[in-house]
Specification:
Elements lengths: L3 H13 L3 H12 L2 H9 L7 H15 L6 H11 L4 E6 L3 H12 L4 E5 L5 H6 L1 H18 L1 H6 L11 H25 L3 E4 L1 E6 L2 E5 L7 E11 L3 E3 L12 E3 H4 L8 E5 L3 H12 L3 E6 L10 H12 L4 E5 L1 E7 L8 E7 L5 E7 L1 E4 L3 E3 L26 E3 L5 E7 L10 H15 L13 E3 L4 E6 L2 H11 L5 E7 L4 H5 L6 E7 L5 E8 L2 H13 L4 H4 L11 H8 L26
Parallel strand pairs: 1-2, 1-6, 2-3, 6-18, 8-15, 9-10, 9-15, 10-11
Antiparallel strand pairs: 4-5, 5-6, 7-16, 12-13, 13-14, 17-18, 19-20, 20-23, 21-22, 22-23
Helix pairs in contact: 1-2, 1-4, 1-6, 1-10, 2-3, 6-14, 8-10, 8-12
Length: about 575
């Protein structure tokens, strides 16, 4: 099976004209297609037009189609092609739908996507992508204004200034560019892009249209249908959104203005990232958190350290254990926003705030309204999520699978992250092609892109110990930690605030969770998540070799601290590195 990484790099690189020759060689190495390399040699990168790139991809994919789905599945698909317009129709062209479409085309399927808003979905247009642009720009401002840090490495800077609009433009332009890249990649792969809001009308059948437009829309049929409609910001009752002084992350990403004092409802990763942006640009921040502590979803020890670095030294205060039960919008620069705080336990009003603005960062809700799921005997749960099994197959009201209907990403609520949606989409395609596949969500990494970053995969220490007690191996859970202060690269950067910890079973070596807070933590986590996904154990990964001096040595130090009960015996023998067969090397 081709991995998500391979599928993501080959078509996008070729279509965009970046690293085309490299991608072709990688594809040849993976699939043994000498003809593909010959084609790449005939098309120098500098002269590789968009049309030529698309033709190259189609040539490659055409040669692979018979190798995609299983032989039996291919016969069924050939018969189905005479009955349906497409093998697969995907409702939603966000990161999840895009990843699924690429994998489906690589597997030999005829694919269409239906999109009622913007190609790229929430992540590209109103989430991951523009927020990282704001974090990048505001992070530079924070660094340049940190005179003490700069002076420690011999740099003196004065009169650091920034302009709000160019920072906002950077975010908007990045989102627009990525959106066009995704659209071109789908078109280059031969995926039909249908514009409109989709509605299920019968098994295998979808109608789509745009309100008020008679020239857009139609009806299509497909062997399989995949729902990938994503999510929207969740706004608690009693909070009116005016988009100016009381707003969600959708509005905040536009950076229309920078309030002097902003309240952020919720201290999860969305709230934390925006607190990073706003404080860097000069705002004061007040967190309003319903739980008894900040960052309640993070590992407790990591959250405490993150609070010491990301919250305490900055212009941030907080109220925990309270709800914002009433919010009254104001007028920018004229009238403040009024917020009433109510104790979660006693339900009594305990405080009120007057701030310049209020960002509602209380999570996200599935965007499943209007799909007409009832036509296929499906109902969402009380929160609006579409019920699915581990293979991403949709379940009806009786708990039985609905044939040929799948749902991925935020719409099913299993793990509301863009890369998780893409992985689910790939898994669903594998299953519809007759190759049974189940995604292990406990091995999917997550990150918060503050300065410094937070990342994690698997269980927190609290979760791991609770599970161990219930399953009878409580004494077998072990924890090891290391500090960024022991890392040469972090010390060279004068950014050594941070730690990493690993939770594992000392009787089996199974890795239960890894958590990192520190410089480039979001990049470092993948060695751990991929080790967990491939079922490597502590006794396996501790022999990995890391380049020196690099931040990756934080994990090197962490892994080497892991000790198993059996390995602690005097007669225990260390693991021996396995020699890779020559023919398996690339």
């Amino acid at each position: 099976m081709v991995t998500a990484h391979a599928l993501g790099s080959f078509p996008l690189d070729v279509v965009s004209g970046v690293g085309a020759r490299r991608s072709v060689k990688v594809a040849r190495a993976r699939h043994g297609r000498a003809s593909l390399r010959e084609q790449s040699c005939m098309l120098p990168q500098s002269n590789l037009t968009s049309l030529a790139r698309a033709q190259l991809i189609r040539s490659y994919l055409g040669s692979q189609r018979s190798r995609g789905c299983s032989r039996a599945s291919t016969v069924v698909r050939a018969q189905a092609a005479q009955k349906y317009d497409y093998d697969l129709v995907i409702v939603g062209a966000g990161v999840g739908g895009h990843g699924a479409a690429m994998h489906a085309v690589e597997s030999g399927l005829k694919v269409a996507v239906i999109e009622g808003h913007d190609i790229g979905g929430t992540c590209v247009n109103r989430g991951c992508v523009p927020s990282k642009a704001l974090l990048a720009a505001s992070g530079r401002v924070r660094d340049m204004k940190n005179a003490h840090h700069l002076k420690s490495i011999g740099i003196t800077v004065s009169n650091v200034e920034f302009e709000r609009q160019p920072i906002a433009d950077h975010a908007n332009q990045l989102a627009a560019g990525i959106q066009q890249n995704l659209k071109r990649s789908l078109e280059g792969l031969g995926v039909d892009i249908l514009i409109g809001a989709a509605k299920l009308t019968a098994p295998h059948t979808i109608k789509y249209n745009l309100p008020g437009r008679v020239d857009v829309g139609g009806e299509v049929t497909a062997k399989d249908i995949m729902l990938a409609t994503g999510s929207v910001p969740f706004v608690p009752p009693g909070i009116p959104i005016d988009g100016k002084t009381v707003f969600t992350s959708d509005h905040a990403l536009k950076l229309d203005w920078i309030p002097k004092w902003i309240a952020i409802i919720g201290s999860g990763y969305i709230g934390l990232e925006f607190s990073d942006v706003y404080t860097a640009l000069g705002s004061e921040v007040t967190f309003i958190e319903a739980m008894d502590k900040l960052m309640p979803g993070f590992d407790g020890e990591i959250a405490k350290m993150a609070q010491r670095v990301l919250v305490n030294p900055r212009h941030i205060d907080w109220h925990t254990g309270v709800l914002a039960t009433k919010v009254t919008p104001g007028v920018p620069g004229v009238k403040p926003v009024l917020i009433e705080l109510t104790d979660v336990k006693t339900k009594e009003k305990v405080d009120s705030l007057e701030v310049d603005a209020c960002l509602v960062a209380t999570g996200r809700a599935p965007y499943t309204h209007g799909l007409n799921l009832g036509a296929l005997g499906v109902e969402t749960d009380r929160r609006g999520f579409v019920p699915v099994n581990e293979k991403m197959q949709v379940l009806d009201t009786k708990g039985k699978t609905v044939p040929h209907l799948y749902c991925i990403g935020d719409a099913n609520g299993k793990y509301m992250l863009a890369h998780a949606a893409s992985a689910q989409g790939i898994s669903a395609v594998e299953n519809m092609c007759g190759r049974e596949h189940v995604l292990d969500h406990s091995t999917v990494p997550a990150a918060c892109f503050t300065h410094p970053e937070v990342s994690f995969v698997g269980a927190t220490e609290e979760q791991a110990r609770e599970t161990a007690q219930k399953k009878g191996y409580g004494s077998k859970v072990a924890v090891v930690k290391t500090s960024f202060k022991a890392n040469t690269k972090a010390l060279a950067e004068k950014e050594s605030d941070g730690m990493a910890k690993m939770i594992y079973r000392k009787d089996t070596g199974e890795i239960l969770g890894v958590h990192i807070f520190g410089l480039h933590a979001a990049d470092l986590i993948h060695e751990a998540s991929n080790a967990m996904a491939t079922h490597q154990r502590v006794q396996d990964i501790k022999f990995n070799v890391h380049s020196h001096p690099t931040l990756s040595e934080v994990l090197d130090e962490l892994f080497k601290q892991g000790h198993l009960e059996k390995m602690d015996r005097p007669d225990a023998k260390p693991a021996v590195a396995q020699k890779m067969p020559q023919q398996a090397r690339i």
